[in-house]
Each structure stands twice: as structure tokens, then as C-alpha cells.
Amino acid sequence: MNNEFVVKHLYKIMERYDLVLIQEVQDQDLENVPNFVENFRKATNKDYEYKISESLGRKTYKEQYLYIYRRDLMEVFYNDIYDDGDESKGEDTFAREPYIMHIKSHLLPANGIILVGAHIAPKKVAQELEEMVKVHAFIKEKFSEGISVVFMGDFNADGSYLSNRKKEKLTFFKDNDYKWILDEDTDTTLAKNDYTYDRIIIYGQALNEMIIADSAKAFYYDEAFSLTNEEAKDISDHYPVEFKIGI
């Protein structure tokens, strides 16, 4: 990354968080991410580390998931892509398989939490979100039945991609154990619409009880940093969505 304006503002946004998921990263040979994180560490004087997925996608366009987190506050015990079947045989469901990470911290429930980052394909939103039930079943089997889980990312879960009728049929929506913590009127992109494409879904009473009231929201960095729409879009066409936990 050599756009000083973009990098400066990305750092300002990222410094707000102890952990952040970044999507649509394209750095298969890791020519940029290590330096980006190292410079972020120096700029903030905080012990940030990262985990990055392999490149994912069915055709020529590929992208990666990137977790950046405070190593002094949490420890990673597992990170891997969810295996949804043999892509070469057409047995997989996700265009970009979710990236799962298990972290522990004195700030979290004793057994830690599971993060599931996913960039849902816009043409198959309902299908891929329903497949998340199998992802959760895998997590329960591998870790524990009651471990808290954060499902998050650009789910394209609004507008023409996911009607209210289709959303209401989703297991994650019908089952009250899954909490959609962002308000339905949260605008998560810089587009002219006000759709809530990006979502955070929480499973697990232990984590739900730690979430600070009204902390789940989008961070409108264009307003915070007095940027024009074009300047803001140079940074990202989506706003970060966030929540805070307390003990």
C-alpha cells in the first residue's frame, strides 16, 4: 500500500479496535500485509499481530480475510478456513469459505470465543447464510457446544440480495439463540442506499451479557474525519461495524 492518505486513515480507523476483520484483501504472496501491520504497530505503539487466510474464490477473482488483533490482550489458539467440500467437484457451497479463529483473553468468557468472518456471495445470500448452520455445527463439535461465536462480515444481507421474506426463513433469524446486534436501519456502505449489508450475529449467552448496550453500530469515518464521499470511498466503500464488550 503506497497511498499515504488511505493508509493514514486506515490506521486511524483500526486503532479504535483491539481486533478487526478486514475483507477483500489481495496479497497472496504477502508482499504488503506484513509491512502494513508492522508500520501500524510502530504508528500506534501497540502490539498488533495478524492472521491471514489463503486466497479464496471460484474464478479468477480471489480475496483473503485478514484478522488484526492486540497480541498483548488476546491469544490465538486456532485459525483456518472452513472446509465446505471439494470445489473442483462442485461440492462446496460458499464462494468464499468462512475464516474461523479461536481466541482467548482475560476480557472474554473463560473458554474464549470463536470468530467467523465471511464475505457472502450477493447472488446466494440466503443459501450461504443457511449453510452457516453447518459451520456452527462444526464449531460445536470441534470446540464445545456452548462456546460463544461471532459471525461477522459483509453478508450482503439486505435490499435485493436478501428480502425480509427470505431473511425470516433463515435458521439464524428464527432461532432466538442468534442475536443480530446491529439495528436494521444501520447504513453500512457509502452507497446512496441505506442498506445493512454488513452484519454481526452473536451466539452465546456468556458473550451477549458482556456486550455494552448500544455499542453495536457502524463507524461513519467520513463524518468523523470530515472527508468527502470520494475521499471516503478511496479508503473503503463499506463502513466498519463494531461492538464493545465490558467485564
From TrEMBL:
Keywords: Hydrolase, Nuclease. The keyword NADP does not apply. The active site is at E63, H119. It holds the Pfam family Exo_endo_phos. GO terms for cellular component: nucleus. One of its GO terms (molecular function) is DNA binding. GO terms for biological process: DNA catabolic process. Residues 7-174 form the Endonuclease/exonuclease/phosphatase domain. Belongs to the DNase I family. This is Endonuclease/exonuclease/phosphatase domain-containing protein. The lineage of its organism: Eukaryota, Metazoa, Cnidaria, Hydrozoa, Hydroidolina.
